[in-house]
């Protein structure tokens, strides 16, 4: 499918960002294509993620319209004037925007979440899935080498489980996804929306500074930016408490 990128702005949004107090909800809104992400939709998705940061949101909720969360990138799309490197670069931008969100990200999965869709699921801080959901990194089945996935997935679910998924491209059930760490919780499909809302409400009622401090510390710890985790944990918690539990904790000095 060939798409003129200049006309994307004339069409209904494929990704929406709704801001409601401390919560930004990003919704994939192309259910007729199982929320496969075109070049234009990827750019909208990145903008939506960044808007949550700009708004100072405490929570970022990523969900989708229709029966499927996201079956990945649109592999048939060709955009005139856009190179493969530029198109693939959007994946890195989206991953960075999601993982660098300074609040708590929550992903809600119904139906299929393949390729980039599973990437969003596993890179969110918390992911709740319907018991009928299926996930997987199916790039090899489309003749592609999932090198971007191979960079981050072993860190998140372990090298053995990651190798199994990326080399075979197989689909896993929600229950198996839970057992290997792709998702955080699995609930009955009929209860998914209600359980997701309960999760969000509980987080909203948590002290915001505590969540932001925890997210900041966890992100820096994973990035190897904290040389002495135990002493840093005590020092940063003490500094935050001494400062009166600010909603937006100051970054550590030095």
Automatic annotation (TrEMBL):
Check the record and name the SUPFAM superfamilies matching this protein. ClpP/crotonase
Span list, region Disordered: 1-21
Give the record's keywords alphabetically: Isomerase
Which superkingdom heads the taxonomic lineage of this protein's source? Bacteria
- Ranges of compositional bias, category Basic and acidic residues: 8-21
GO terms for MF: isomerase activity
Q: Which family does it belong to?
A: Belongs to the enoyl-CoA hydratase/isomerase family.
Q: Which PANTHER family match?
A: ENOYL-COA HYDRATASE (PTHR42964), POLYKETIDE BIOSYNTHESIS ENOYL-COA HYDRATASE PKSH-RELATED (PTHR42964:SF1)
Under what name is this protein listed? Answer: Enoyl-CoA hydratase/isomerase family protein
Protein's organism: Gordonia jinghuaiqii
Its ancestry begins with:
Bacteria, Bacillati, Actinomycetota, Actinomycetes, Mycobacteriales
């Amino acid at each position: 499918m060939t798409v003129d990128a200049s006309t994307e702005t004339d069409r209904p949004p494929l990704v929406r960002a709704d801001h409601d107090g401390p919560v930004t909800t990003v919704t994939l809104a192309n259910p007729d294509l199982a929320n496969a992400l075109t070049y234009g939709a990827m750019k909208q998705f990145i903008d939506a993620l960044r808007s949550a940061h700009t708004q100072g949101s405490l929570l970022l909720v990523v969900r989708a319209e229709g029966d499927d969360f996201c079956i990945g990138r649109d592999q048939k799309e060709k955009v005139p004037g856009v190179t493969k490197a530029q198109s693939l670069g959007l994946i890195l931008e989206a991953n960075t925007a999601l993982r660098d969100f300074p609040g708590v990200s929550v992903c809600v999965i119904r139906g299929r979440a393949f390729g980039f869709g599973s990437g969003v699921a596993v890179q969110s801080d918390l992911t709740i899935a319907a018991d009928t959901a299926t996930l997987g990194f199916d790039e090899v089945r489309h003749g592609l080498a999932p090198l971007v996935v191979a960079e981050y997935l072993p860190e998140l679910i372990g090298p053995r489980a990651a190798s199994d998924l990326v080399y075979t491209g197989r689909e896993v059930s929600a229950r198996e996804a839970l057992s290997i760490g792709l998702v955080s919780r699995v609930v009955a499909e009929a209860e998914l929306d209600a359980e997701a809302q309960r999760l969000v409400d509980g987080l909203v009622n948590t002290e915001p500074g505590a969540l932001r401090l925890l997210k900041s510390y966890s992100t820096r710890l994973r990035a190897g930016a904290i040389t002495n985790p135990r002493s840093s944990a005590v020092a940063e918690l003490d500094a935050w408490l001494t400062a009166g539990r600010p909603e937006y904790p100051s970054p550590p000095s030095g």
